[in-house]
From TrEMBL:
Belongs to the Glu/Leu/Phe/Val dehydrogenases family. GO terms for biological process: L-glutamate catabolic process. The record marks D143 as: Important for catalysis. Keywords: NAD, Nucleotide-binding, Oxidoreductase. This is Glutamate dehydrogenase. One of its GO terms (molecular function) is glutamate dehydrogenase (NAD+) activity. The active site is at K103 (proton donor). InterPro entries: Aminoacid_DH-like_N_sf (IPR046346), Glu/Leu/Phe/Val/Trp_DH (IPR006095), Glu/Leu/Phe/Val/Trp_DH_C (IPR006096), Glu/Leu/Phe/Val/Trp_DH_dimer (IPR006097), Glu/Leu/Phe/Val_DH_AS (IPR033524), Glu_DH (IPR014362), NAD(P)-bd_dom_sf (IPR036291), NAD_bind_Glu_DH (IPR033922). The lineage of its organism: Bacteria, Candidatus Nomuraibacteriota. The keyword Cytoplasm does not apply. Pfam families: ELFV_dehydrog (PF00208), ELFV_dehydrog_N (PF02812). Residues 180-407 form the Glutamate/phenylalanine/leucine/valine/L-tryptophan dehydrogenase C-terminal domain. Substrate binds at K67, K91, S345. The keyword Transmembrane helix does not apply.
Length: 407
């Protein structure tokens, strides 16, 4: 497996060559403020005790408290968490919110745990890290395989330890436990606002044909939002494979089918395709919404989409970036495309601290102009430096961090 942190540092190096940032600043950004590894003992249902490895990386807090999700996955390891924390620091800067970058994780396949084991593990993660977490210090959120229910357990554990009643130490909570309206769909909805803001610039048609990799929080809501807006979803996949219909998939039916059967496989009116083939679908827009390193030097040449919008973090590695740039396939980078998630997380934190509850309309009315403004500024930065949108986004983020950082 490729090291995502090395890829993130290659992206940083590329931008440092384009724009004249101070060497001291770039050197500082090559290391997180701290990376913490913990072992979490969990009493299993059979009476044994199992030790899990967990992480929290606090990358940079020049702009505000560290902010970033917690990932539960069997392949999660420190370099992945470091890369994700670095991207979070840039993402918060791109969104212009007063938050820094962090990320957490546990090496675990949550599907192998009972609900009770999962709860004890999640509470254990907070117990080991309660000293460094907090509304004004470090504010986690959901990521792959972590849910509002898990956020509620973590918040409850934190309250028990510290007495904090604001609920603002973690975001992505259920609505009745201090969560924000719109948080569940925010990442996909934000991606859609960015898409609308850049559609003309990307030379995309009014109604697009789309392929989406991943059918979790980001991917499934993206499919729903784009199809409700009249676009055609040709193909979708999850970890077990995908489905394709040249006339378009019925997304509501597909969501129900996946809920009932646990899989996309066997969905009526569709052909089955592999994840590899999905990435090669002939379409207007490809939306990777699963994991990092999906498009690499090995398959970038086979991509036939007219443009790519990264809802996942780090789905395209630096080698593939170069290939796609030469093929004239523009990429809307993750730190812009999926920044709706963290922006609504910030709204949740803000509501908790002010003891307010905003309507979904209020949330999205606040979100849209933020993303449109970021998209416009990033486009201008990329044109100014005659580079791609990813470098444009990095330049915007780095300038904002450099203005506030103390070296
Ligand atoms: P999720 O756990 O809800 O869903 C992940 C999906 O990816 C699942 O459908 C899974 O089956 C699928 N998947 C796993 N391996 C795959 C593979 N090899 N090919 C195709 N599909 C595969 O996670 P999520 O929250 O939707 O996150 C997906 C991506 O979006 C991650 O990169 C995450 O960091 C990023 N992201 C999520 C949010 C958010 O708010 N949820 C915010 C910003 C970024």
């Amino acid at each position: 497996m490729q090291n995502p942190f090395e890829n993130a540092m290659k992206q940083l190096d590329k931008v440092a060559k384009i724009k004249n940032f101070s060497e001291e600043f770039i050197t500082r950004l090559r290391q997180p403020d701290r990376d913490i590894r913990i072992s979490i003992p969990v009493k299993m249902d059979n009476g044994s005790t199992k030790i899990f490895e967990g992480y929290r990386v606090e990358y940079n807090n020049a702009l505000g408290p560290y902010k970033g999700g917690i990932r539960y996955h069997q392949d999660t390891e420190i370099n992945e968490v470091k890369a994700l924390a670095f991207w979070m620091a840039l993402k918060c800067a791109v969104a212009g919110i007063p938050m820094g970058g962090g990320k957490g994780g546990i090496t675990v396949n949550p599907k192998e745990l009972s609900k009770g084991e999962l709860e004890r593990l999640s509470r254990g993660w907070v117990r080991k890290l309660s000293d460094i977490l907090g509304p004004k210090k470090d504010v986690p959120a959901p990521d792959v395989n972590t849910t509002p229910e898990i956020m509620a357990w973590m918040n409850d554990e934190y309250q028990k330890i510290t007495g904090d009643k604001t609920g603002a130490m973690i975001t992505g909570k259920p609505l009745d436990k201090g969560g924000s309206e719109g948080r569940g769909t925010a990442t996909a909805q934000g991606g859609f606002f960015v898409f609308e803001a850049l559609k003309k610039e990307l030379n995309l048609p009014e109604k697009c044909k789309i392929a989406i990799q991943g059918f979790g929080n980001a991917g499934s809501y993206a499919a729903l939002i784009w199809s409700k807006a009249g676009h055609t979803i040709l193909a979708i996949s999850d970890s077990k494979g995908g489905v394709y219909n040249e006339k378009g998939l019925d997304i509501e039916k597909l969501m129900k089918y996946k809920k009932d059967t646990g899989s996309l496989s066997g969905f009526p009116d569709a052909k089955e395709i592999t994840n590899e083939k999905l990435l090669e679908t002939e379409c207007d827009l490809l939306i990777p919404a699963a994991f990092e390193n999906q498009i690499t030097g090995a398959n970038a040449d086979k991509v036939k989409a007219k443009a790519i919008l990264e809802l996942a973090n780090g789905p395209i590695n630096p080698e593939a970036d170069e290939i796609l740039y030469k093929k004239n396939i523009p990429i809307v980078p993750d730190i812009l495309a999926n920044s709706g998630g963290v922006t609504v997380s910030y709204f949740e934190w803000d509501q908790n601290l002010k003891n307010e509850h905003w309507s979904e309309k209020e949330v999205f009315d606040k979100l849209r102009p933020i993303l449109e403004d970021s998209a416009k500024k990033i486009l201008a930065k990329s044109k100014e430096s005659n580079t791609d949108l990813r470098c444009g986004a990095f330049i915007l983020a780095l300038e904002r961090i450099e203005a506030k950082i103390t070296l």
